[in-house]
Structure formats: C-alpha cells, structure tokens
Design goal:
This protein is of the alpha/beta class. 62% of the residues lie in helices and 11% in strands. The chain binds adenosine-5'-triphosphate (ATP). Adenosine-5'-triphosphate (ATP) is lined by residues 153, 392, 395, 397, 415, 417-423. It is a multi-pass membrane protein.
Length: 604
C-alpha cells in the first residue's frame, strides 16, 4: 500500500478515506497501523537491528536466575542436577567461597550484558519511534497547510493546531511506548514462557495460563478506554481552539471586558476533558487489582507445584528458584504493559484524528495534468469567467458570472456587500474551485493548472496584509525567498516602504512582532505591495487595499500601487474613487434578489 508520506508528496488520493475505515471500529486499530506503516518503511534496518538487540537482551535475562540456582544447588548444598552453570562451578573444585564469588560475578556480568543490550535496543527503537513521529508531524503540517481553504473554513485554527502538536505528541508517546515497553515486553514474556516450558512442561502450563489471563485483562474495557481517550482528545482540541480564539481576539476581549464569558466557556469545556480523563483513569485503575490477583495466583500455583516437585525429588531447589525467577520476570513486563493501556488508547485516538487530516483529499498536491504541461514561464494575463457559480456549502456567493478580462486590463469589481467580489478574486487565485463553470487564465481552467505555476502568475494585496514575525525585509522576501537584498530594496523603494523604514534605526531589518505587529495600517499595506511587486506576477488582485486608511495613507498606498499595476492584468475590488480612477473598466456585481443569486453588469 502507498505510504501516507508518498501519497501526500505525490498528490495521490488515498484509496480509502478515514471515514470509511472507521466504519468497522473493531478493526480500526489494525487499519490504523496499515495507514501509518509507510512512515516506518525508511527505518526497517534500524528496527531489525533494534529487534536483534532486544532478542539478545531477552536471552541475557533468561540466564539471570541460573547463577542463583547454581549457588542453591551446588554451593548451599541443596543438591540437584541439570544446572548448566553447576558443572561450570564444579571446575572450581570444592572451594565454596570461590564458587560463590564466581556466581556473584556472573550475576553482575549477565546484568551488565542485559543492560548493554537494553541500552542499545532503547537507543535504536526509541530513536525510530521519535523519527517516525517527527515524520508524521511534518507530514500532517505539510498536508494541513495545503488543504483547500474550504477545509480550513470549517475548522478552527486552535483545533488544527491541536492535531499537529498534541495529537502528534500523543502518537509519539504511543510509538515510543511501543518500542521501549510493548515490543520488548512481548519478547520477554514469550521468552520466559518458552523457557518455563523447556524447564518443565508443568511450569510451562502455569506460565502459559498466566499470559492469556493477563492479556484478557488488557483487552477488557479496551473499547471503553478507547472511547474515553477519543472523547478526551476531542474535548482537548476544542479547548485549544477556545484558548487560541480568545488570545487572537485579546484586544476585543479587553476592549469589552468580556473575560468572564471566555472563563465560563473554558470551564464548561474543561469539564468535558475532566470527565473523559476520569473515565480513562477508572478503566486503568480497574485493571490493577485484577492483575495483581492473577499474578499472585500464578506465583502461588508455581510455588505449590514446584514445592511438591522438589519434595518428591522431581526437581532441584535451584530449578524452583529459576522457575520462580522466570515467572517474576514474565509478570513484570505484563504489569508494565497493562499500565500503558492509557497511553495506547490516547495514541490510537490521536492517530485517528491525524489520519482524518491525512485522508482529506488535497487537490493542491494533485499530479500535474498532461494538458497543463508545457506552460510558458509567464502568463500573458488573460482572465475569463465562463458561467461561474460559487456556493460555500449551501450559501450562494456568485451566480453565473461571465466576464472576459484581456491581458493588461485593470478591472474594478464593485457592488453591494456580499455580492461576491472577494469570492471572484479568490477564484482567480485558485483558492477555491467554482461550483459550476470555469475560471481560465490564458484559456486554461485554474483547476487544471499546476499549483506552483498558478502561484507565480497571480499575486494579491488584500484589505489587511498579513505579516509574519521577522524583519520587514523578511516579509517582503516572503514573495520570493531567493530574491537578492538589492531586489528587496528596489521593491521596498517602489512601494514607498523605505520612505518610513529609513526613519527606523534598523531600516528594512526592523523586527516586527507576532503577526507583524508594530506597523500602522498604511505601512502594512505598503509592505504588502512591496511583497507583491517582488513576486512580479502578470496578474494582480487587489481587495480593498486602501479601505480603513486615512486620506494621506491612502494617497501613499495608491501611489505605491501605481507601480504595482503598471503593465499587468489587474482585478480590483474597491469603492474608493482614488483607486477606481486607475481602472480601465468597472464591472458591477449586482444582487439579483434574495435567493436568486447575483449577476454582472459590465460598465466598461
Ligand atoms: N469562507 C466563506 N464561507 C462561507 N461563506 C462565505 C465565505 N466567504 C464568503 N462567504 C459568503 O459569500 C457571499 C459573498 O461574499 P464575498 O466576501 O465574496 O462578498 P463581497 O462582495 O466581497 O462582500 P464585501 O463587499 O462585504 O467584502 C457572502 O454571503 C458571504 O457571507
């Protein structure tokens, strides 16, 4: 099966969406493993080496009780045979102190060997767990970023952040627990059970009875644990979304003094997290006493059977010591495994939430269509709307728009609020797909154009320019990361950015705060224009770039825009006369009446 990473990077659509996978929850975890298997593929060799280390560690652990048994049988004189180390001690003759010293040294040596393999196994396998989860996190973020705006319109920023950070973190915890506890634990248990069986079939039967009993306890309530973990993750995601929203709107919260409203919302949603958390704790806690009872019963049975066997001379005391050592060794990882059920339930719930994101079809990563190959590096700039309708869900934004814009024309779209002007711009940029009809650039539908090519042909200055934390120059260079400092400076000069940054001590190197804080509205717009100038695209979209500016700021922004729009196709949305004057034609989108959509009246 194609790995998620491959699927995403090649733009392949996965054969089955996660929604379909989840139809059968009983097999969901297996399907989930298959879904994520591709992330482990590059680490097969490391994993194989890690498995080898674990096998050696298990082998060393199996030797651990034998020196003790040899001491009991050969040094303390309990008598007995068939202890492979006993004959080794016999080499030392009758010097019991030397035998004791040798046995003690052997205990230390075996422990050291086991610890060394444990260390190497942990390094290798946990490293693979960490690397796999880092790859999953990278892929989730990369995929999420490229999902169409229609996906993001339906999600909160906090919710999506929580999937990339917290869910990927939980998957990492699950993977590391798998590598460092589950896998070595299963190896140890299997090794101890097999060794018990080899020691004597009666010991083996007791060991073999303990394993399924403990495993049954592990899977008991698994569904309940999984449901609780899933609910908890959903509630935590909502909580993150709530915090992100309140902090994004912190100025409004302060301005209206509505902290209490957000406190109450937060407390209500925290209640959901708490309930789910308590349920998960309950599921976990119920297992502990049952597990103790099963292991105590197993030990008691072994002690009784072993004791009877020693009394009747079937086995030596040393054999009983070894058998009890094996059973104790077997129970320890089982106990650790049962404590991990919460981590695994949480990891599975989070993996499902990540799989939901990765299973979202991503048209922006679709392979280049044959008809779109051989495009010129730069479009001429003709834009055609042919019978374009656009619905956001069941909300109609545009209805049958027909509009032809020749290369080099500067068309202003006007019309009442909600007439679909911004939607028309978004369609030219290929940010949405029209519900009906086509938007073409130089005769090719945007839906058929490669994403990268389209991005090079269209640039935009929006009502509010979003700036990232970093320097002013970084923000301008965002349009073309390989631009030289001279090109950045030229764009900044042309957009009248240097007119204000030259007054700052660090000039274009001035650092902006989070989300580009620290500049006025007009200054931000000029940085946006410099960015668009640097992109040097043949088609420029302007969405109310001067709204909200005072007369002086508007004059400067319009002057800067004059350089951006020269010799380019421009589609602008504006009501401001200063900008309208630069248009070569005006098209008014008119509401055709409630529920009947909108039409276009071409005012050219
Ligand atoms: N992301 C979205 N999700 C759902 N509905 C949307 C979305 N964007 C716009 N709409 C709806 O589509 C319709 C057209 O919106 P659009 O922003 O294109 O109009 P506009 O003419 O640019 O309005 P304005 O002049 O107020 O900016 C409106 O009814 C709006 O509520």
């Amino acid at each position: 099966m194609e790995s998620p990473a491959d699927a995403a990077s090649t733009g392949g659509q996965r054969p089955v969406g996660w929604g379909a996978l989840m139809k059968d929850p009983s097999t969901a975890h297996r399907q989930l493993l298959r879904f994520f298997r591709g992330f482990g593929a590059p680490y097969r060799r490391l994993l194989a080496l890690g498995v080898g280390m674990r096998l050696c560690e298990t082998a060393a652990d199996l030797v651990t009780p034998w020196p003790v048994a040899a001491v009991v049988d050969h040094v303390l004189g309990a008598g007995g045979a068939r202890n492979p180390l006993g004959s080794l001690l016999d080499v030392l003759g009758t010097d019991r102190t030397a035998m004791l010293t040798a046995a003690a040294a052997l205990v230390v040596l075996v422990a050291l060997v086991s610890a060394a393999f444990d260390y190497a196994g942990d390094r290798l396998m946990n490293g693979v767990g960490e690397r796999m989860s880092a790859a999953i996190r990278r892929e989730t973020f990369a995929h999420l970023q490229r999902l169409p705006l229609s996906y993001h319109d339906r999600r909160t920023v906090g919710g999506s952040t929580s999937r990339v950070i917290t869910d990927c973190g939980n998957v990492k915890d699950g993977l590391v627990a798998f590598c460092s506890v589950l896998f070595p634990g299963v190896l140890s248990v299997t090794g101890y059970a097999a060794a018990l069986l080899l020691l004597d079939w009666r010991f083996g039967l007791i060991g073999a009875a303990v394993v399924p009993a403990v495993l049954l306890l592990g899977v008991r309530n698994r569904r309940r644990g999984h449901r609780a973990a899933r609910r908890r993750r959903e509630a935590e995601g909502e909580l993150t979304a709530l915090v992100a929203e309140a902090l994004q709107g912190i100025r409004t919260v302060h301005a209206f003094g509505r902290h209490g409203v957000h406190d109450r919302d937060f407390a209500a949603r925290s209640g959901g997290v708490l309930d789910a958390g308590l349920e998960a704790v309950d599921v976990q806690a119920r297992r502990a006493p049952l597990l103790e009872a099963v292991t105590a019963a197993g030990t008691a049975a072994l002690l009784w059977v072993g004791g009877v066997g020693v009394l009747r001379g079937w086995w030596s005391t040393g054999h009983l010591v070894v058998a009890i050592g094996y059973l104790t060794g077997m129970v320890a990882p089982l106990r650790a495994l049962s404590k991990l059920s919460g981590t695994f339930a949480q990891g599975q719930a989070s993996a499902e939430r990540i799989a939901e994101v990765l299973a979202e079809p991503c048209p922006l990563r679709a392979p280049v269509r044959a008809g779109a190959r051989g495009l010129p590096p730069r479009a001429r700039g003709r834009v055609d709307f042919a019978g374009v309708s656009m619905d956001y869900g069941d909300r109609r934004a545009l209805h049958r728009l027909d509009l032809k814009i020749a290369a080099g024309e500067r068309i202003a779209l006007t019309g009442p609020n909600g007439a679909g002007k911004s939607t028309a711009l978004a369609l030219v940029a290929g940010l949405y797909r029209p519900t009906r009809g086509t938007v073409c650039i130089d005769g090719t539908a945007t839906a058929d154009l490669p994403e990268e090519w389209l991005r090079r042909q269209v640039t935009a200055v929006l009502q509010e320019t979003f700036l990232f934390a970093g320097t002013v120059a970084d923000n301008i260079r965002y349009a073309r990361p390989d631009a030289s400092p001279r090109e950045v400076r030229a764009a900044a000069d042309a957009a009248l950015v240097t007119a204000f940054t030259d007054g700052f001590p660090d000039g274009l190197g001035t650092r902006l705060g989070d989300c580009g804080g620290g500049l006025s509205g007009g200054q931000r717009q000029r940085v946006g224009i410099a960015r668009a100038l640097l992109a040097d695209a043949p088609i420029v979209l302007l969405d109310e770039p001067t709204s909200g500016l005072d007369a002086e700021a508007e004059r400067q922004v319009v002057a800067a825009l004059g350089r951006l729009v020269a010799d380019r196709t421009v589609v602008m949305v504006t009501h401001r006369p200063a900008l309208l004057e630069t248009a070569t034609g005006v098209v008014t989108l008119t509401a055709a009446g409630p529920g009947r959509g909108y039409g276009a009246a071409d005012g050219r």
